[in-house]
Amino acid sequence: MSLEEEVVKALLDKGYEITTAESCTGGMIASALINVAGISEIYKEGYITYSNEAKHKLLSVDKEALEKYGAVSEIVASQMARGAARAAGAKAALAVTGIAGPGGGTEEKPVGLVYIGCYLNGKVTVIENRFKGTRLAVRQETTKRALELLLECLNE
Q1: Which of 19, 40, 73, 121 is the most buried (most CB within 10 A)?
Q2: Could you give the CA distance from residue 25 to residue 23 in angstroms, rounded to a whole number?
Q3: Burial class of residue 8 in the structure, from the number of CB atoms within 10 Å of its CB (0-12 exposed, 13-18 middle, 19+ buried)
């Protein structure tokens, strides 16, 4: 069974609907989930919020958090996950924000820095990741790690 299939089975078993909020992955997480038969029963909607304006408008991310901490931060990933779940009326949400590269990184926030937020029934878990490789590799690793995090949270 693939990772995506495991995630969908776990969501179906618990009766949880899911939504996604993606920045650096640009829909890869939604695409991975939608590859699984039966997902239509539980996938509510997805948000690709690449700009700060979209994060604020669609997911209710605080403008102050975006200005103070930047889009690539733990607090923004947390607010994205919570905001997506609220907007979609879902019990589960995955949110990702990061720097896929090859440009855009700084010493403080290098290329490959990605925060993944998992919302489950009112609780948000955020993990920081530092991936290596091409832009595509960072996006693929982020997608894989996000699905793993969701599975871990579902199995707690």
Answers
A1: 19
A2: 6
A3: buried
- Phi first, then psi: give them for residue 99, nearest 5 degrees: -115, 105
Count of Cβ atoms closer than 10 Å to residue 63 Cβ:
11
Residue in the structure block whose two tokens are 């832009």: 135
DSSP state of 97: E
- Its CATH architecture, for the domain 3-155, is Alpha-Beta Complex (3.90)
Tokens matching residue 73: 């931060």
**pLDDT of the residue at 58:** 98
Percent of the chain at pLDDT exceeding 70: 100
User: What's the Cα-to-Cα distance from 42 to each of 25, 34, 45, 149, rounded to whole Å?
Assistant: 21, 10, 9, 18
What is the reported pTM?
0.97
The label of the residue with tokens 């579902």 reads: 154
pLDDT in tens, 60-104: 999 999 999 999 999 999 999 999 999 999 999 999 999 999 999
Q: Which of 26, 28, 25 is nearest to 3 (CA)?
A: 28
